[in-house]
Design brief:
Layout: E1 20-26, H1 41-54, E2 58-62, H2 75-91, E3 96-99, H3 103-111, E4 116-119, H4 129-136, E5 140-143, H5 161-178, E6 186-189, H6 198-206, H7 208-212, E7 219-220, H8 226-231, H9 246-258, E8 263-266, H10 270-290, H11 296-305, H12 312-315, H13 326-331
Parallel strand pairs: 1-2, 1-8, 2-3, 3-4, 4-5, 5-6, 7-8
């Protein structure tokens, strides 16, 4: 992985010095989160520009709902929805991602100015997708996917969700590489909410380091999803509506950024833009604290106590090294 602040860098895209924020524009009438609010082309373009003004680094445009039970739109309708919005945003200088499972939609979106293809099937839904993206030389998101969310595929069964998702993503990445997409243009996504229950999503978020071990930047798309509804459910067990999960989404964004995610995909940008910047400021403070001669007054006192040797507390980060939380840390992963 081409490292940049430890989280990776994607060829063909800007190099952000922190976790990037991907804003979402659903050009659909039936999205689970905002059903039809941005369905009109003019309104959708304005929404994308508003997201950039709020702090989005790139905007993901999609014309097909992937919620459980959604009926697929035909290709012509998806093109009608997506291409004018991609073109309009790209003309304004926005870095655009297209959220599609169809090769032709990807090709036409890239021709209209999109910079990235975000395929929730990782190229499995359309065998022409990988050759099309490879020919264009575009970056590509490989998401963990076990099929369309219909029938038995809605609920995934796992013995070890982290190991299985990591292994399946590795296999898919190898296929994408074999199809001609360059390794420095591949992004991986654990597919939160896709054939996964709440406990699976939370466990994957708690172990993003395992996904980063695949050697590619990681995209986290947790925004407003069902697992957050379950976490926030009231005493009666009823989850809040999707639009009332944005504060929880920002919390996940901060944690994902802290864990080294390359980008987070969100519907409401402002709070998440703040969250990733705070996470970056903390990274900078940690780096400054560990740099010899940059420890300030306290660092000078520590050095005076043990010349040339960092204090045990400094060397081990107050004993809170990620992944070494002992019994308490193990309990906190679920």
């Amino acid at each position: 992985m081409n490292n940049h602040s430890g989280r990776g860098q994607v060829a063909g895209l800007p190099a952000w010095d922190r976790c990037a924020v991907m804003g979402v524009v659903n050009v659909t009438p039936d999205s689970f989160s905002d059903g039809g609010r941005w369905f009109d082309t003019t309104i959708a373009v304005k929404r994308g520009l508003d997201l950039v003004a709020q702090g989005a680094d790139l905007v993901d445009v999609g014309g097909e709902s992937t919620r459980p039970g959604a009926t697929r739109v035909d290709e012509a309708e998806e093109l009608r929805r997506v291409i004018p919005v991609v073109r309009g945003l790209a003309a304004e200088g926005v870095v655009v991602s297209v959220d599609t499972m169809r090769a032709r939609v990807a090709e036409q979106s890239l021709a209209a100015g999109a910079a990235l293809v975000n395929d929730v099937s990782g190229g499995l839904a359309d065998p022409a997708m990988i050759p099309a993206v490879a020919a264009a030389g575009a970056p590509f998101v490989v998401m963990h996917w076990r099929g369309f969310l219909q029938g038995d595929s809605v609920k995934g069964v796992y013995e070890d969700v982290v190991a299985e998702v990591t292994d399946e993503l590795h296999t898919r990445v190898e296929a994408v590489l074999a199809g001609g997409i360059a390794p420095d243009r591949i992004i991986v996504d654990p597919g939160l909410g896709f054939s996964k229950e709440a406990e699976h999503d939370l466990t994957l978020l708690a172990h993003l380091d395992r996904l980063r071990d695949l050697g590619h930047p990681v995209l986290v798309a947790a925004s407003r999803k069902r697992f957050l509804g379950r976490v926030l459910a009231g005493a009666d067990g009823a989850p809040p509506p999707a639009r009332e999960r944005d504060a929880a989404t920002a919390a996940v964004s901060a944690l994902a950024a802290h864990s080294g995610a390359w980008a987070v995909r969100v519907h409401e940008v402002h709070a998440t833009a703040d969250a990733v910047r705070v996470a970056r400021a903390m990274e900078e403070a940690r780096i400054a604290r560990s740099t010899p001669g940059a420890g300030g007054e306290r660092g000078a006192r520590d050095a005076a106590r043990t010349p040339g040797v960092a204090s045990e507390r400094e060397a081990h980060g107050d004993g809170r090294t990620p992944g070494a939380g002992g019994e308490h840390g193990a309990e906190g992963t679920r």
